[in-house]
Protein backbone atom coordinates (compact mmCIF):
# COMPACT_ATOMS: atom_id res chain seq x y z
CA UNK A 1 0.00 0.00 0.00
CA UNK A 2 1.55 3.28 -1.17
CA UNK A 3 0.44 6.38 0.75
CA UNK A 4 0.76 9.80 -0.88
CA UNK A 5 2.98 12.41 0.76
CA UNK A 6 0.05 14.74 1.53
CA UNK A 7 -1.55 12.01 3.64
CA UNK A 8 1.66 11.58 5.63
CA UNK A 9 1.67 15.32 6.32
CA UNK A 10 -1.95 15.13 7.50
CA UNK A 11 -1.13 12.19 9.77
CA UNK A 12 1.78 14.21 11.16
CA UNK A 13 -0.55 17.19 11.72
CA UNK A 14 -3.02 14.95 13.55
CA UNK A 15 -0.28 13.53 15.77
CA UNK A 16 0.95 17.06 16.55
CA UNK A 17 -2.63 18.10 17.29
CA UNK A 18 -3.07 15.23 19.72
CA UNK A 19 0.27 16.07 21.36
CA UNK A 20 -0.90 19.70 21.65
CA UNK A 21 -4.02 18.61 23.53
CA UNK A 22 -2.04 16.32 25.83
CA UNK A 23 0.85 18.68 26.60
CA UNK A 24 -0.82 22.10 26.14
CA UNK A 25 2.26 23.34 24.27
CA UNK A 26 1.00 25.85 21.68
CA UNK A 27 4.13 25.42 19.57
CA UNK A 28 2.90 21.95 18.62
CA UNK A 29 -0.25 23.50 17.19
CA UNK A 30 1.85 25.84 15.08
CA UNK A 31 3.86 22.88 13.80
CA UNK A 32 0.58 21.11 12.98
CA UNK A 33 -0.50 24.11 10.89
CA UNK A 34 2.86 23.92 9.09
CA UNK A 35 2.22 20.24 8.37
CA UNK A 36 -1.22 21.07 6.93
CA UNK A 37 0.41 23.72 4.72
CA UNK A 38 2.93 21.14 3.48
CA UNK A 39 0.09 18.69 2.82
CA UNK A 40 -1.62 21.38 0.74
CA UNK A 41 1.53 21.96 -1.30
CA UNK A 42 1.80 18.23 -1.92
CA UNK A 43 -1.85 17.39 -2.58
CA UNK A 44 -3.14 20.49 -4.34
CA UNK A 45 -0.08 21.87 -6.09
CA UNK A 46 1.91 18.63 -6.50
CA UNK A 47 5.07 20.14 -5.00
CA UNK A 48 8.13 17.97 -4.51
CA UNK A 49 9.53 16.78 -1.18
CA UNK A 50 11.99 19.68 -0.88
CA UNK A 51 9.24 22.27 -1.44
CA UNK A 52 7.00 20.52 1.09
CA UNK A 53 9.72 20.60 3.77
CA UNK A 54 10.51 24.25 2.99
CA UNK A 55 6.82 25.21 3.27
CA UNK A 56 6.53 23.28 6.55
CA UNK A 57 9.62 25.01 7.97
CA UNK A 58 8.67 28.51 6.78
CA UNK A 59 5.04 28.35 7.95
CA UNK A 60 5.91 26.78 11.32
CA UNK A 61 8.76 29.23 11.98
CA UNK A 62 6.67 32.22 10.94
CA UNK A 63 3.82 31.20 13.24
CA UNK A 64 6.16 30.64 16.17
CA UNK A 65 7.97 33.94 15.51
CA UNK A 66 4.73 35.95 15.25
CA UNK A 67 2.27 34.21 17.57
CA UNK A 68 4.51 33.46 20.58
CA UNK A 69 5.47 37.09 21.33
CA UNK A 70 1.84 38.20 20.96
CA UNK A 71 0.64 35.40 23.26
CA UNK A 72 3.36 36.17 25.81
CA UNK A 73 2.43 39.87 25.81
CA UNK A 74 -1.25 39.02 26.29
CA UNK A 75 -0.43 36.68 29.14
CA UNK A 76 1.61 39.31 31.03
CA UNK A 77 -0.82 42.23 30.60
CA UNK A 78 -3.16 43.15 33.41
CA UNK A 79 -6.88 42.97 32.73
CA UNK A 80 -8.34 46.07 31.07
CA UNK A 81 -11.10 46.48 33.63
CA UNK A 82 -10.61 46.25 37.36
CA UNK A 83 -12.69 43.92 39.48
CA UNK A 84 -13.29 43.45 43.19
CA UNK A 85 -11.70 45.98 45.51
CA UNK A 86 -9.45 47.27 42.70
CA UNK A 87 -12.60 48.56 40.98
CA UNK A 88 -13.48 50.61 44.08
CA UNK A 89 -10.18 52.48 44.30
CA UNK A 90 -10.51 55.98 42.89
CA UNK A 91 -14.31 56.05 43.13
CA UNK A 92 -16.29 58.68 44.97
CA UNK A 93 -18.38 57.96 48.02
CA UNK A 94 -20.78 59.92 50.24
CA UNK A 95 -20.16 60.27 53.97
CA UNK A 96 -23.01 58.78 56.05
CA UNK A 97 -21.39 59.17 59.49
CA UNK A 98 -18.53 61.56 60.25
CA UNK A 99 -15.24 60.11 58.96
CA UNK A 100 -11.96 60.94 60.66
CA UNK A 101 -8.70 59.16 61.49
CA UNK A 102 -10.45 56.71 63.80
CA UNK A 103 -13.38 55.75 61.57
CA UNK A 104 -16.82 56.49 60.18
CA UNK A 105 -19.23 55.25 57.50
CA UNK A 106 -19.59 55.98 53.78
CA UNK A 107 -21.85 54.83 50.96
CA UNK A 108 -19.67 53.38 48.22
CA UNK A 109 -21.04 51.69 45.09
CA UNK A 110 -24.47 51.37 46.71
CA UNK A 111 -23.14 49.72 49.86
CA UNK A 112 -22.34 51.01 53.32
CA UNK A 113 -18.64 50.74 54.16
CA UNK A 114 -16.63 51.54 57.25
CA UNK A 115 -14.11 54.23 56.42
CA UNK A 116 -11.28 56.26 57.85
CA UNK A 117 -9.51 59.38 56.67
CA UNK A 118 -6.13 59.05 54.97
CA UNK A 119 -4.94 62.06 56.97
CA UNK A 120 -5.72 61.30 60.64
CA UNK A 121 -6.05 65.01 61.42
CA UNK A 122 -8.70 65.61 58.76
CA UNK A 123 -12.44 64.89 59.16
CA UNK A 124 -15.30 64.67 56.67
CA UNK A 125 -18.86 65.56 57.62
CA UNK A 126 -22.15 63.87 56.66
CA UNK A 127 -23.11 64.48 53.03
CA UNK A 128 -19.60 65.32 51.82
CA UNK A 129 -18.19 63.48 48.82
CA UNK A 130 -14.86 61.75 49.34
CA UNK A 131 -12.46 59.83 47.11
CA UNK A 132 -11.54 56.26 47.95
CA UNK A 133 -7.75 55.92 47.97
CA UNK A 134 -7.33 52.38 49.26
CA UNK A 135 -9.26 49.44 50.66
CA UNK A 136 -7.84 47.75 53.77
CA UNK A 137 -9.92 44.72 54.62
CA UNK A 138 -13.48 46.02 54.95
CA UNK A 139 -12.40 49.64 55.53
CA UNK A 140 -12.15 52.25 52.82
CA UNK A 141 -9.38 54.81 53.21
CA UNK A 142 -10.69 58.16 51.94
CA UNK A 143 -9.53 61.68 51.30
TrEMBL record:
GO BP term, example: proteolysis
Protein name: Membrane protein implicated in regulation of membrane protease activity
PANTHER family per UniProt: INNER MEMBRANE PROTEIN YBBJ
Lineage: Bacteria, Bacillati, Actinomycetota, Actinomycetes, Kitasatosporales
Localization annotation: Membrane
GO molecular function: peptidase activity
Protein topology in the membrane: Multi-pass membrane protein
Stretches that traverse the bilayer: 6-23, 51-71
Amino acid sequence: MDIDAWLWWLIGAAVLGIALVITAMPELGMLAVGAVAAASVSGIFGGGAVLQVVVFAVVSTALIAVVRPVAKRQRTQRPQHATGIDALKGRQAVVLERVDGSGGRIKLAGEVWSARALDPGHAFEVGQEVDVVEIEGATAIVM
